Amino acid sequence: MSNIVGRVREAFRGDQRVDPDALIARLDAVQRFLRAVDGQVPDARLVAAHTVVERAGARLALSGDHTVVALAGATGSGKSSLFNALARLELSPVGVRRPTTGVAHACVWGQLGGAGRLLDWLGVLPRHRFVRESALDGDDESGLHGLVLLDLPDFDSVQRTHRLEVDRMLGLVDLVVWVVDPQKYADRVIHTSYLREFQRHKDVTVVVLNQADRLTPAELPRVLADLRRLLDADGLDGVPLLPTVAVDPAGMVGLREALERTVAERQAALRRLAGDVDAVVAELEPLVGVEPPRTGPDDASTRELTRALAGAAGVPSVAEAVEGAYRHRAGGTTGWPLVKGWRRLRPDPLRRLHLPGPAADADAPAESLVAATSVPDPTAAQRSALNLAIRAVGDRSGADLPTPWPTAVTAAARSRLGDLPDALDRAVAGTDLGMDRRPAWWRVVGALQWLVTAAALAGLGWLALGYALRALGLPAPEYPRVGEVPLPTVLLLGGLLAGLLVAALTRPVVRWAARRARQRAEKRLTISVGTVGDEYVLVPVRSALGRYAQAREALGDAARR
Fold first, then answer.
1. Sheet of 175-180, strand order
2. Is 144 within 8 Å of 132 (Cβ atoms)?
3. Could you give the 3-state DSSP secondary structure of residue 502?
4. What letters, b where the CB count within 10 A reaches 16 and e where it falls short, cover 526-541?
5. Structure-model confidence comparison of residues 518 and 228, the more confident one
6. CB 161 within 8 A of CB 243
7. Whole-angstrom Cα distance, residue 46 to residue 281?
8. Which residue of 89, 212, 399, 509 sits 20 to 30 Å from the alpha carbon of 180, by its own alpha carbon?
9. Residue 2 has pLDDT above 70, yes or no
10. Residue 377: count of CB within 10 angstroms of its CB
11. Mean pLDDT value across residues 307-328
């Protein structure tokens, strides 16, 4: 047995120390992870992380001078006897009827002090607390000062409340001493339901083979070797394994020295919390397993989205109206003055859509530019195309991410879908369509048309005057001639023909300029609806991808030791 105790001492000396500041930094990283994934990952997958953060914060805020050690085991393993043997007092009931221990009992070595708040947090009732401090012992118990030893109920108790109490305590204590006996050390329940769950807490796990006195000197090494094999299969290789005999003080030396060393190091609480963080990080790693493929949607998805938004916003209809309005307004300025009145009877295409009117409307109140338009509502096909484009943005952006991030990214893309119609309408209404100023050449052509019209009217008036004089029997005036043709006739016919010629020459120029105006307006409208798509679709997607990157970085920080 002395050789076994020696190997256990070496195992404890090999434990690495946990830096409290590094542990706090890792816990902060877990909190950053939780903030980053809030609302993106189902809460059910984050329960363990929230529990660890809250538990660690509470434990670190409590006494750092005490080490909480729990004795856990199955019915009949002798936990209570071991508890009493370590305390050297009869504190926990021992009996033949099972289960004997129904609630946790605690023994504190040294003054109760800060251990009281620790026991309150653990939920140990005051009547089940004992203080191991006696003047009769002298310095015999000084090596365990700071130890809070718990005797837990049996984890295989027939009473469910006992099992629940064990599970609760195992999540709170700093170090667990698993007590097994020669008859049930290979029991499937303790190995599959408990020991294997402590793979990441090897630094704060001790296994004792109690009642070792029931084995012969030849049987003890074989049983310990078999138990070691089972522990290795559970992933607990290197965990200290000690034989104990509760009825013999010599059989308690190894365990007592292990506890004294643990208390002196004051590392058990930190190691336990570090193991909890390791377990949480391992559980959360599948959520952020890959590098974010991009910081936002790809160009192809963005272009498809912009096209779909333009269709839903009625950009083609507005651009067509701009072309019609350009021709309408250009005709009103450059057309033949004698037929302008007929053009005024036709409505301005942009006015019918409640979009910015001609330059005469420039003094209108600013809010009229962002009022609701009369652009036709999108068709079912256009709405369907927009929904598909938005979904494509989310699906492609989150395609390479682990579950549940693709769903979260797609949901982010659709998060403001209900606000899009009004936003698109405002964007169209607020876009400068380039129709607020009349080109200078319009005025030049208009002035020319008025000039030739005035010439025609002058010729007509001059001829009318001659006819009137003849009708009155007065001498007819002598008309100047241009060749053989009287000047008034030249003015009349020349003015009419010149007006028609200017109109004919201007018409193709107006059509070409109207197409250019349509293209400019369409480009500006596309930019406007693209801005809406960026704000209402792409920004939420980038935010979700950014939170994924933040979560991955935070979990990477939490994984560093």
1. 129-132, 105-109, 147-151, 67-73, 175-180, 205-209, 241-243
2. yes
3. helix
4. bebbbbbbbebbbebb
5. 228
6. no
7. 11
8. 89
9. no
10. 10
11. 87
Q: Is the pLDDT of residue 367 over 60?
A: no
3-state SS assignment for residue 108:
strand
| Cβ contacts of 39 within 8 Å, gap of 6 or more | none
The Cβ of residue 545 has, within 10 Å, a number of other Cβ atoms equal to: 23
187: three-class secondary structure by DSSP: coil
For every residue of 452-498, DSSP letters joined together read: HHHHHHHHHHHHHHHHHHHHTTPPPPPPPEETTEEHHHHHHHHHHHH
Cβ-count burial 78-116 (b if 16+ within 10 Å, e if not): bbbbbbbbbbeeebbeeeeeebbbeebbbbbbbebeebe
φ, ψ at 534 (rounded to 5°)? -65, -45
- Give the start-to-end residue ranges of the domains of the chain: 65-265, 299-442+506-559
Paired sense of beta strands 205-209 and 175-180, if any: parallel
CATH number of the domain located at residue range(s) 65-265 in this protein: 3.40.50.300
Residue in 404, 169, 440 with CA at minimum distance from that of residue 284: 404
- Radius of gyration from C-alpha coordinates of the chain: 46
pLDDT of residue 137: 61
Rounded-to-10 torsion of CA 325, 328, 332, 336: 160
**8 A C-beta contact, residue 471 and residue 545:** no
CB 308 within 8 Å of CB 388: yes
Q: Which of 333, 510, 355, 373 is nearest to 434 (CA)?
A: 355
- Residue 34 CA to residue 32 CA, distance in Å, equals 5
d(C-alpha 202, C-alpha 534), whole Å: 51
Cβ contacts of 124 within 8 Å, gap of 6 or more: 104, 105, 106, 150
- Rounded Cα distance between 346 and 329, Å, is 11
For 371-412, what is each residue's pLDDT tens digit? 457 787 888 998 999 999 999 999 998 888 898 999 999 999
Interacting residues of 210 by C-beta distance below 8 A, sequence separation 6+: 73, 77, 78, 79, 81, 82, 179, 180, 181, 244, 245, 246
Least confident of 33-47, 411-425, 458-472, 536-550: 458-472
pLDDT of residue 99 exceeding 60, the answer is no
Which strand (E) or helix (H) includes residue 205? strand 205-209
How far apart are alpha carbons 5 and 513 in whole angstroms?
98
- Provide mean pLDDT across the span 527-541: 93
Amino acid letter, 113: G
Predicted TM-score (pTM) of this structure: 0.78
Backbone angles phi, psi at 46, to 5 degrees: -115, 5
